[in-house]
Amino acid sequence: MTDRIVEKVATQTDESRNQGRRAFLKGGAAVAGGVLFTKAASAAEGKTYNPTKAVAPYAGKEELTDVLQDGAARKSLGFGVRKYPYGMPSPYEKEVQRRTLEWLTPDAMASITMSPLQSLHGIITPNGLHFERFHGGVPTINPEEHRLVIHGLVERPLIFTMDDLKRFPSVSRIHFVECPANGAMEWKGVQLNSVQWTHGMMSCAEYTGVRLSDLLKEAGIKPEGKWILPEGADASGMSRSLPIDIAMDDCFVAYAQNGEALRREQGYPIRLVVPGCEANMWVKYLRRLYVHDVPMQHREETSKYTELMPDGTAQRFSWYMEANSVITYPSPDFKMQGPGKYYIRGLAWSGRGKVAHVDVSVDGGKNWKEAHFTSPVLDKAWTRFELEWEWDGKEAFLMSRVTDETGYVQPPMPQMRKLEGTNNVYHRTAMVTWRVHDWDGGKNGGMIENVQY
Amino acid sequence: MFSTKQTIIAAALALSSATVFAMSGSPDSNKEVVAKKDGLYASNYVEIIKNADGKYLDAKVIEAILGKDATHGRAGLKGKLDPANPYSFEVDDSIDGGNHGNSQCKVPAAFVEVHDSVNKNYYSDADFVANGFGTPIAESALEKWNITVDGDGKGLPDPSVGMTVEEGAKVYVQFCAMCHGEFGEGAKGYLPLAVDQNLVASDFRDPAPMKTVGNYWPYAVTFFDYIRRTMPYWTPNAPFIGDKGYMGITAYIMQSNYIPVGFDEDGEPIELDYDTFYNSELLMKQNRYMKNQGNFFCDHRPVVHNERCMNNCPDSQVGNGKGDVHDYVQARKLPDGTLQYNVPQRLHEDPPGVGHAGM
After folding, report:
1. Residue B340, pLDDT above cutoff 90
2. Do A276 and A226 share a domain, yes or no?
3. CB contact under 8 A, A312 and B200
4. With contact defined as beta carbons under 8 Å apart, do B65 and B41 qualify?
5. N or C: which terminus of chain A has fewer CB atoms within 10 Å of its end residue's CB?
6. B330 in contact with A at a CB cutoff of 8 Å?
7. A150 lies in which domain range?
């Protein structure tokens, strides 16, 4: 029985993948020679698939009366239960996908995909759309053979099976997880017209697992143990030094994400959750917690994931993600539909706690109005904001600015660039600007463009 | 460049003053807290932060604790490198046992919420009762997994393990050169290992500098750690390379980056010869002479402490930073007017806009 389910899921996954591939080829994008997206824009009309525009086209029918007829959905039976033992989104949502920019990385095993933030609602990222970042590909680990070890400067080195971990008291929390390189491509200027590209190296999910403090105390840390080295069981053997003050704060070892086991892409069978901190500290395929007296100074905390400043110095051990926000609607994937009322919506988050305020400006930062929250306001989690806006059809510059509970106010880009230069790569957490083109009787097509000051 | 000692001297020149702090709008705003400044910073910072509802990054709170001058930008950074500063991620040199100065960072004292939580979960948790889950294991059983090396070289192989630089070059060419280039110049989008480029940016429009082992790897010993644990990419920690081979590869890359093993009487660098037998002792020597080592400092963010302005905001916060909202940059366009995405980067005309080739 299990075999049949697995087979069905596999078939279904293949179907979905082929669907994507067919649609992709239909879009006329030239993939040869690694040059993606050339001419794709010209094929954007109608219902053809455009890899640069990731919003599903709902408004297909010109004549509303057409859809008032009883169609196939009403006049015939739909499919039965268990057609899909593991359910998948409607085929009409096929363009809502994780995407990557091929020129970012030399191969797919050390690469990244971005979540389609422009198509997401609420504060939870579905598991299939959770962003991916691999340093050595995704292993398929048998949980029966996986172990977590706590050793080093501990009283009792311990080895845990996955069943052992699930016997501990559990904790479920909603947190965002953000790659510190989120928005990295925009340091030197604007170049990508989608929230998916500018902010998609992040997701937000409900994680369930065991408090790291419970596990560490179970093994008993010796007084000289001040740093923890989590290490992954994958080819990259991801490792970062975690100070005991972060480890004992609110970290946990997660085995579930949004109610089901972690996906392989997110660390199946277990990963570390380090709320509010850089996603590369959330070590996936976690196999070892090595307690040590000094930080390890490993590659991913020295030569990578450190921020190069204009004077040649570099900032290291940058743990917490700054408060950040972005308007997801209207945003460059959408088109304005004429002057009138809009509800500006977006996401705000902070690695240092709860979001306190989100303000929205439509005039490039001169004047601001406070938005209200349409989701729960949680610690180190996405928060949804919304603000009513009456668009007069004139050119507008949309920006959002978050203030978190620590009193930190998100800065504009020119200020951040002046302080940190443009070769930083990581932590580009300043505001972005969406330029809404003058409606001009519809001549500009309602275009919304990513611009940068 | 930013040694802690310099910082303390610089900071000692600053004047200290007492500030009265009351947070408007907070429940305790009627209760005024006087900043006690016996040294450079308010010693009662916890009280000030708690009185302000924990808003430790509020511009006014920072000002009350650090004084007006220490709050902004790169100038404020020098003060932040002083471990006595409640906002500093730096730790005091004196507690570092390593061989390269200040090598640790910490969660700043001003993050009172984190420290309260850690105190509750760990330092003051007298009630903890072990569940007894998991199985005890001997440290010796973990030899296979525990192959990490730390920044002080703990975990390196015995000095008898190694090979000459020339032999190391052969191992490198066999297992690494197809992706990183015969001379470490990089290939096929994989990272270069030995391009010595200046990291100081004079103009943000210049291509991003290439970060390599030579100019951007502060600890030689963890280069060995990294390649032994994760390379070759397709089959990490390869027994057919072994500690000996990994030591040889390290030797070749260190030599390609002209990392000295010491300095002679005239102060000239002593470089590795091709027939030098390279081992963990030489690696430890080189660990002191990595080129960019002194330029890494602990996280000093946020350097921005803006006020939350709602109407007629100052020009510095509007548009291009000078009040002009029409002075913006757009993505480049193709001749037909459609937007283009990183065309020069895709064609490899210049290095990718993310700062280095590949991630």
Report:
1. no
2. yes
3. yes
4. yes
5. N
6. yes
7. 143-315
Q: For residues B321 and B36, what is the distance between their CA atoms, to the nearest angstrom?
A: 36
- Helix (H) or strand (E) holding A13, with range, is helix A2-26
Q: How far apart are CA A233 and CA A227, in angstroms?
A: 20
- Residues 74-103 (A) with a CB less than 8 A from some CB of B: 101-103
Strand boundaries in B174-282, DSSP class E: 262-263, 269-270, 277-278
Please tell me whether residues A297 and A344 are part of one structural domain. Answer: no
Residue A202's CATH number: 3.90.420.10
Record: contact B354-A427, CB cut-off 8 A:
no
Q: Do A249 and B118 touch (CB under 8 A)?
A: yes
Residue A369 CA to residue A389 CA, distance in Å, equals 10
The average pLDDT across B275-301 equals 90
Neighbour count for residue B295 (Cβ, 10 Å): 20
pLDDT in tens, B18-54: 677 776 555 555 567 888 887 788 999 999 999 999 9
Who among B58, B97, B230 is closest to A407 (CB)? B58
- pLDDT band of A103, cuts 50, 70, 90: confident
- What rounded mean pLDDT belongs to chain A? 87
Query: Does B29 contact A at CB distance below 8 Å?
Result: no
C-beta atoms surrounding B50 within 10 Å: 17
What tens digit of pLDDT does each residue of A331-346 get? 998 889 899 999 999 9
Residues A32 and A180 in one domain: no
- Beta strand A286-292 pairing with A148-152: parallel
Chain B touched by A217 (CB under 8 Å) = yes
**Per-residue confidence at A324, pLDDT binned at 50, 70, 90?**
very high
Q: Which amino acid is at A11?
A: T
Amino acid at residue number A252: F
8 A C-beta contact, residue A179 and residue A202? yes
Task: pLDDT band for A190, please (50, 70, 90 cuts).
Answer: confident
pLDDT at A7: 45
Number of residues that this document lists for chain A: 453
Q: Given CB atoms, is B16 within the 8 Å cutoff of chain A?
A: no
Class of the CATH domain delimited by B163-295: mainly alpha
Rg of chain A in Å (alpha carbons): 23
DSSP helix, strand, coil percent of chain A (3-state; round to 5): 25, 30, 50
Q: Give which of A248, A346, A241 is closest to A296, Cα–Cα.
A: A241
